[in-house]
From TrEMBL:
UniProt-recorded name of the protein: LLM class flavin-dependent oxidoreductase
Organism in which the protein naturally occurs: Reyranella aquatilis
Keyword annotations from UniProtKB, A to Z: Flavoprotein, FMN, Monooxygenase, Oxidoreductase
Pfam family, one: Bac_luciferase
Lineage: Bacteria, Pseudomonadati, Pseudomonadota, Alphaproteobacteria, Hyphomicrobiales
All copies of domain Luciferase-like, residue ranges: 21-389
Claim: Flavoprotein is one of the keywords in the record: yes
Protein family membership: Belongs to the NtaA/SnaA/DszA monooxygenase family.
């Protein structure tokens, strides 16, 4: 199975209360913090360390940032490139992935950043393609409001065409380094892109040659209708949230079918749901650890993060007042979360309290949580993996770096014993690790 670590370049993990955990290390603004995590993950033979990101702190709730700052709700958000580089240079096999937005960056810039990173860490880079979420990000980038949902994906489709086009402009054998003849590279094997589209114009030639894995692995996490179409076209590693095993099986089968219908090999697209894992040497120890972690959450964590991810001010709605059809339609952020709340609650017009309860946002109930002995956790992971619900897992951290240390120490050996997970890396690049072929010059999609 594929194992991915879910990271944040901020004061907490994706669990916002993690900074309150007594065992979380406080040096999150140092390279040593991330390099310790990277070495732990490589010791556990993880495929990839992946960074989520936003381009604004959570300030949509009440149009104010004070509560988020007061409670430390994901308010520190550092740029990822230097952190990914530091982690890549501290390891030899671990893949390093990061999030860059197609809504607020330019394709040439993103192509160059990740192509360069890929060279610097020996072909182990991955780019998580996002369209961003909310108006707070827009106003940080000279815009008045966030683009409409489907329009963001239209822009993202063209963004991908440009990025992949640039990554394809150097043939793999273009560089000759022929000192005797004075020829550095064959100009016939370096090409202009000359892209002229609705959203972008980019001429080239690109300035970074191909890496040992061809180009960075493409990560995507779209789960709305339009988002799934985008993910099935471009993604090689797909991050998802499944509420439970039954829904996971259905959504996994539906997505693989959509990939096949688009003319791609579904076996070459990895689908990995997020889970929290809280292991203990005994069931009681694991349950006590889980209780401590769960009690760290603050009510404001949920409200601030719901407002951020759905681009809607939840301070404007009483807790038990149903959303109108118009309000639900106006939600322009992560529409998959809106749809998931409607589905799980069974209410066409859920309330704010329903969003808090059924989304689990800001708590460890946001994604499935496996709690117990290593054997019990491996049983659950095996059931999902062999039961047709996933190709692996995104392991979310409840505290840093202890959640990963516990997983590597307790759970990985049990997965290895069962033949569910590797004992050694199969090669040097991230594509080697994921079992993905080096892309030819044609685009992924």
């Amino acid at each position: 199975m594929t194992l991915v670590a879910f990271l944040q370049a901020q004061n907490c993990s994706n669990y916002p209360a993690s900074w309150r955990h007594p065992q979380t290390m406080p040096d999150f603004m140092s390279p040593q913090y991330y390099q310790r995590i990277a070495r732990t993950l490589e010791e556990g033979k993880f495929d990839l360390a992946f960074f989520d990101d936003r381009l604004a702190m959570p300030d949509r709730y009440g149009d104010d940032y004070e509560e988020s700052v007061r409670h430390g709700i994901r308010v520190v958000k550092m740029d990822l490139v230097s952190i990914m580089t530091a982690m890549g240079l501290a390891t030899q096999h671990l893949g390093i992935g990061g999030t860059y937005s197609t809504t607020y960056f330019e394709p040439f810039h993103v192509a160059r950043v990740f192509a360069t990173l890929d060279l610097m860490i020996g072909g182990r880079a991955a780019w998580n393609v996002v369209t961003s979420l909310n108006d707070s990000e827009a106003v940080n980038f000279s815009q008045t409001e966030h683009l409409e949902h489907d329009l963001r994906y239209d822009r993202a489709d063209e963004f991908m065409e440009v990025v992949l086009g640039h990554w394809n402009t150097w043939d793999k054998d273009a560089i000759l380094l022929d000192r005797e003849k004075g020829i550095f590279a064959d100009p016939k094997k370096v090409h202009r892109l000359d892209h002229k589209g609705k959203f972008f114009r980019s001429r080239g030639p690109f300035t970074v040659p191909r890496s040992p894995q061809g180009h960075p692995v493409i990560i995507q996490a779209g789960q709305s209708g339009r988002g799934k179409t985008f993910a099935s076209r471009w993604g090689e590693l797909i991050f998802v949230i499944f509420a439970n095993l039954a829904l996971g099986k259905k959504m996994y089968a539906d997505f693989k079918q959509q990939v096949a219908a688009g003319g791609r090999d579904p076996g070459k697209v990895k689908l990995t749901p997020a889970v929290y894992v809280i292991p203990g040497e005994t069931k009681t120890m694991a349950e006590e650890k889980a209780a401590l972690i769960d009690n760290l959450a603050h009510p404001m964590d949920s409200l601030a993060l719901l407002s951020e991810v759905l681009n809607f001010d939840f301070a404007s709605k009483p807790m038990d007042e149903p959303f109108t059809d118009a309000e639900l339609k106006s939600i322009g952020g992560l529409q998959a979360m809106r749809d998931r709340v409607i589905q799980i609650s069974g209410k066409a017009n859920p309330t704010t309290r329903d969003f808090v309860q059924y989304s689990g946002r800001g708590t460890i109930r946001e994604v499935p949580t496996f709690i117990g002995t290593p054997q019990a956790i491996a049983d659950q992971m095996e059931e999902w993996f062999n039961g047709g619900a996933c190709d692996g897992f995104v392991i979310a951290a409840t505290h840093m770096p202890g959640a990963y240390e516990d997983f590597v120490r307790l759970v990985v050996p049990e997965l290895q014993r069962r033949g569910l997970f590797r004992k050694e890396y199969p090669g040097k690049t991230l594509r080697d690790t994921l079992g993905l072929s080096v892309p030819e010059k044609s685009a992924v999609g």
